[in-house]
Amino acid sequence: MIKSINDVITLNNGVKIPQHGFGVYLIKEEEEGYNSINKALEVGYRSFDTAQLYENEKLLGKILSESGVKRSDLFITTKVADFNQGYDGTLRSVEQSLKDLKLDQIDLLLIHWPSKKHFFETWNALEKLYDEKLVRAIGVSNYEIHHLEELSSKSAIKPVINQVECHTYLTQEPLKDYLKDQSIAFEAWSPLGRGAILNDNVINKIANKYDKSIAQIVIRWHLQKGNIVIPKSSTPSRIEENANVYDFNLADDEIKVIDSLNKNQRNGNAPDDVYLKI
Ligand code: NAD
């Protein structure tokens, strides 16, 4: 059972990732960045999830490098944007990400969305970056089972992780079962459904029992289910709240009740729609 925000999951190449990280999507302004990222560090977060698309790699790199936290204690994920896909575009853009993040090595590099056009070239570029030790682990995001099958048919290295939309209204069980079989870790983006799942009456009852907020119950549900989770907030009190989920345990029947709220409801794009467009 996960006990603290420092607990890690071992990926299929031996690299360890904190199970509970901090997402920085939409944190672009300097003051907001300092307030939220420093607050996240203060309450114990060491894993940060950014992307080329978020236009905040430079800000994140600056704040983390000034923070005084040892590089080896941090875990930084970034993602190759759709417009940088292809072999050369990926290599060039990751060189820039390394500079912006002020890193010699990225901990985890993901392909942000599957692209039919650049499917293997982008992955081959990630494999090269991994071989050259510019990244410690490579993975994908927003891949469905058929994308993973296609990738495994012609690639040398298996992704360590698939980061996909997942919350209480989109529990992703079939994809999770497949990933487990393949030893690919499961990471949940929009773990709080961008706020859209936070008015649920069923979870509210469980929240009242533990004297916790709905957001805390949902994060704890993810953690007990083994999901890697990266909730985002730029409000310091919520950042603290979202980290404060280690003093209670949900019972198995409560986890099942939350599981049953699934309605396969996406807030973001469906991977196959993006796949055919980029
Ligand atoms: P999220 O589910 O983490 O929700 C964030 C929003 O929920 C906040 O903006 C706030 O409005 C609300 N919130 C957060 N904590 C709260 C609390 N304690 N009480 C009440 N409301 C609260 O959504 P997200 O930002 O979309 O996802 C998290 C991270 O996942 C992102 O920051 C990003 O790093 C990553 N992500 C990845 C992809 C991808 O395609 N790979 C897509 C979206 C997000």
TrEMBL record:
<feature type="domain" description="NADP-dependent oxidoreductase">
    <location>
        <begin position="29"/>
        <end position="262"/>
    </location>
</feature>
<dbReference type="InterPro" id="IPR023210">
    <property type="entry name" value="NADP_OxRdtase_dom"/>
</dbReference>
<keyword id="KW-0521">NADP</keyword>
<feature type="active site" description="Proton donor">
    <location>
        <position position="54"/>
    </location>
</feature>
<feature type="binding site">
    <location>
        <position position="112"/>
    </location>
    <ligand>
        <name>substrate</name>
    </ligand>
</feature>
<keyword id="KW-0560">Oxidoreductase</keyword>
<dbReference type="Pfam" id="PF00248">
    <property type="entry name" value="Aldo_ket_red"/>
</dbReference>
<dbReference type="GO" id="GO:0016616">
    <property type="term" value="F:oxidoreductase activity, acting on the CH-OH group of donors, NAD or NADP as acceptor"/>
</dbReference>
<dbReference type="InterPro" id="IPR020471">
    <property type="entry name" value="AKR"/>
</dbReference>
<dbReference type="InterPro" id="IPR018170">
    <property type="entry name" value="Aldo/ket_reductase_CS"/>
</dbReference>
<dbReference type="InterPro" id="IPR036812">
    <property type="entry name" value="NAD(P)_OxRdtase_dom_sf"/>
</dbReference>
<comment type="similarity">
    <text>Belongs to the aldo/keto reductase family.</text>
</comment>
<feature type="site" description="Lowers pKa of active site Tyr">
    <location>
        <position position="79"/>
    </location>
</feature>
<protein>
    <submittedName>
        <fullName>Aldo/keto reductase</fullName>
    </submittedName>
</protein>
